[in-house]
Automatic annotation (TrEMBL):
Bias-annotated ranges (Low complexity): 46-75
GO MF: GTP binding; GTPase activity; signal recognition particle binding
Region (Disordered): 1-92
Gene3D superfamilies: P-loop containing nucleotide triphosphate hydrolases, Signal recognition particle SRP54, nucleotide-binding domain
Any single biological process term in GO: SRP-dependent cotranslational protein targeting to membrane
GO cellular component: cytoplasm; plasma membrane
HAMAP family the record matches: FtsY
Organism: Halobacterium bonnevillei
Protein name (database record): Signal recognition particle receptor FtsY
């Protein structure tokens, strides 16, 4: 799952780690030269160092220290400006490694970040989401001294992890906690476009809830599509669940309303209501959603789309949220998606969480969406 995106993130990590390693090596060289300079100034013998470059660094550093001592001994030089190169850049970098730190400049990361941006866009990550990820990485890595206690690789991985979580892990609700804590019956309505697995997803969630001890009734509010009743009835029969349905062409609000009344009369915990697939531009169908919200007042409205739809899924989620506010998203076919753009982008764009991922055709092939677990998988070696 999301193997293509995983490979692209791995490439960025390697490039950024190389930059961090190069900076750490430069700081280490400066620290070594500074130590030799202090030894010379104190009159201590300095052991021969391998490589002419190290010797040149020591000679230069010794000159800097000697000049600093001469200046302190000469009262007339007390007001002289300090040498910025030696006292600022040189000595600052020299002490950085001793404190277990490394400095990465923005120019150092320009190439790796540019490649990461291209990689994210190629993986169908929405533009504003890609920009947010890059901005977070810059904030974490650039400018200030950064600790690295184990390796520069852990520094880069931590920054990338924080950046991904900042766009994936939005404030929201845990669906199963919500079911447990909401007054019964809990009414959940599902929306989305045609052909994305919405009806099968409803059946999967119905089974998952029954496995957890809840009673469930299904409602077929898709009264426009020929065969919709038969499709959901087949799922209901397979799972031994009650289905409330009306004739094709009936009022979908009336169907869901009847299901809620049935649940109240029979002590059913959860009503799962299907609706007709629609585009946000289908004004008559969007008006039906508005009527359903007004009359039934469902506790939660869930948007369903395919993970493999990439940016199309992200755009549709945003449009549905604008037209009829959603509480969260379920992405189907996640097991067939190598790009991961929708999983990375949907929550950031809508401000609503991804609740579940569909991972196959079986009734048990649905898993709660865990941002931390997703990032762990994306960054795993």
């Amino acid at each position: 799952m999301f193997d293509g995106l995983k490979d692209k993130l791995s490439n960025f990590r390697e490039d950024a780690e190389e930059v961090a390693e190069e900076n750490a090596e430069a700081i280490e060289d400066d620290e070594q030269a500074a130590a030799e300079a202090e030894a010379v100034a104190d009159g201590e013998p300095v052991e021969a160092q391998a490589g002419a470059a190290a010797g040149d660094g020591a000679d230069a550093a010794a000159g800097d220290v000697a000049d600093a001592e001469a200046a302190s001994a000469d009262p007339d030089s007390a007001d002289d400006e300090p040498d910025e190169e030696s006292s600022g850049g040189f000595m600052s970098k020299a002490s950085s490694l001793a404190r277990g730190r490394v400095i990465i400049e923005e120019d150092d990361l320009e190439g790796p970040l540019r490649e990461l941006e291209f990689a994210l866009l190629e993986s169908d990550v929405e533009m504003s989401v890609a920009e947010a990820i890059l901005d977070q990485i810059r904030e974490d890595l650039v400018g200030e001294e950064k600790k690295f206690t184990k390796s520069t690789g852990s520094l880069v991985e931590s920054a990338l992890r924080d950046a991904l979580l900042s766009v994936i892990d939005v404030d929201g609700f845990d669906f199963e906690d919500a079911i447990a804590n909401t007054e019964k019956p809990v009414t959940v309505v599902f929306t989305g476009v045609n052909g994305v697995g919405k009806t099968t997803t409803i059946a999967k969630l119905g089974k998952r809830l029954e496995d957890q001890g809840y009673s469930v009734v299904l409602a077929n509010g898709d009264t426009y599509r020929a065969g919709a009743n038969e499709q959901l009835q087949e799922h209901a029969d397979n799972l031994d669940m009650k289905l409330i349905s009306h004739e094709q062409g009936g009022d979908p609000t009336a169907v869901v309303y009847d299901a809620v009344e049935y649940a109240k009369a029979n002590d059913i915990d959860v009503v799962l209501g299907d609706t007709a697939g629609r585009l946000h531009t289908s004004s008559d169908l969007m008006q039906q959603l508005e009527k359903l919200d007004r009359v039934v007042d469902p506790d939660y409205t869930i948007f369903v789309d395919e993970a493999v739809a990439g940016q199309d899924a992200v755009n549709r989620a945003s449009e549905f949220d604008d037209a009829a506010a959603i509480d969260g998203t379920i992405l189907t076919m996640a097991d067939a998606d190598s790009q991961g753009g929708a999983a990375i982008s949907v929550s950031h764009v809508t401000g609503k969480p991804i609740l579940f991922l569909g991972t196959g055709q079986g009734y048990d092939d649905i898993q709660p969406f865990d941002p931390d677990a997703l990032v762990d998988d994306l960054l795993a070696d």
